[in-house]
Design brief:
Elements lengths: L1 E9 L3 E4 L6 E10 L7 E7 L1 H7 L6 E13 L2 E13 L36
Antiparallel strand pairs: 1-3, 1-5, 2-3, 3-4, 5-6
Length: 125
């Protein structure tokens, strides 16, 4: 899935040590707001110190974020996870309210004569 918008919040980085593998982990969450008539907000995370550094997301960035949505159960409750796997900078922001370009005028053509001619109707219906 993919969504485009502006980063309006950068939450603090969290980290720890995996109980299963003993390796360190880091995750950082961001809030993105779409630039539509009725803007929507989405909180997503980036997992791994290498991805956090690679994406280098900052407050105010205009991004297109590709992400996966997953859910997991913990103590009888379900929690959603929205994890980014690709981030692209938006270089030029198109104005969604801009007027469309008009069609070019049609060239003048000779009028078609639909009157008379053959009296037999050759249409199959």
């Amino acid at each position: 899935m993919e969504i485009t918008g502006k980063i309006i919040a950068v939450l603090p980085e969290r980290g720890g040590v995996s109980q299963r593998t003993g390796s360190e982990w880091k995750v950082q969450e961001y809030v993105l707001e779409t630039q539509e008539q009725y803007p929507r907000k989405m909180c997503f995370d980036v997992f791994g110190a290498d991805k956090i550094a690679q994406f280098a997301i900052k407050l105010g960035d205009h991004l297109t974020v590709s992400f996966d949505v997953d859910a997991r159960e913990y103590n009888g409750r379900w929690y959603n996870s929205i994890r980014a796997w690709k981030v692209e900078r938006v270089t030029e922001q198109a104005d969604p309210m801009a007027e469309p370009m008009p069609f070019p005028p049609a060239p003048d053509a000779a009028p078609v004569d639909f009157s008379g001619g053959d009296s037999k109707d050759d249409l199959p219906f």
